[in-house]
Amino acid sequence: MRGKVIGDILVLKKEVKDPETLLEIPGVNRVVKLGRIRGKTRQPEVTVLVGEGTETIHKENHCLFKLDVSKIMWSKGNTTERKRIAELVEEREIVVDLFAGIGYFSIPMAVHSQAEKIYSLEINPTAFNYLCQNITLNQVDNVIEPIMGDCRDSAPYGVADRVLMGYIGNTHHYLDVALNTLKEEGGVIHYHESVPDKFKFTRPVDRIKEAAGDREVKIMNKKIIKKYSPGVYHVVVDAWIK
Fold it and tell me: What are the extents of the domains in the chain?
């Protein structure tokens, strides 16, 4: 069986003969099968095999995430990265999360750090709705300010000590937005990209430096988060930019 438990729902990649037997797994009350991932918002196709409903509350690293597994993607492979980023945020920092989703990074930062303010931007109305619910659920309304809309139009200018770019796809097209979001004296960008193996640490760095132009760039960390597909890796680069 290949699957992952999200809240009380077991999400399978393949059908099994007797899905009811999977309810014997501790904490599992429902079983669904994941199909294709559709569109820009990466909405999953889901078939319910056992139980009713697809909304649940997932617990991770002392944080609560409410989501509907038939509408929202959840990556267990990013668990370590979500924890790592929360530990990097320093006291009184202002953080901008350009692709917040349901609060994958914003919620752990708000719960576990002493950030002064986190601006969390999300374009998908469904994800934004869950982001707002998760802010309340984790009692971090005083830290996170949710902003609905395309980050290119909605990102605050010149305020951030740290910028999260936790989306993989055409992320490099938004490096200019991230740079404009940083304070004048500079700050850190956490840039995510899906990259072929032989370019996994060169292409992301080159793209950051190209976007930065004549600004000073210091690469602080390069890390593989997980294998994305055959020969392709999801990587993150931490870059300090003046």
Answer: 3-53, 77-241
- Please count the CA atoms within 13 angstroms of the CA of 227 that sit on its side-chain side: 3
CA distance 185 to 214: 14
Structure tokens at 233: 């890796």
Contacts of 141 (CB under 8 A, 6+ apart): 135
Homologous superfamily (CATH) of 77-241 is Vaccinia Virus protein VP39 (3.40.50.150)
pLDDT tens digits along 19-75: 999 999 999 999 999 887 766 556 778 899 999 999 999 999 999 999 999 999 888
In degrees to the nearest 10, what's the CA dihedral of 224, 228, 229, 232? Answer: -40
* pTM, full prediction: 0.93
Spell out the SS3 assignment of 40-90.
CCCEEEEEEEECCCCEEEEEECCEEEEEECCCCCCCHHHHHHHHHHHHHCC
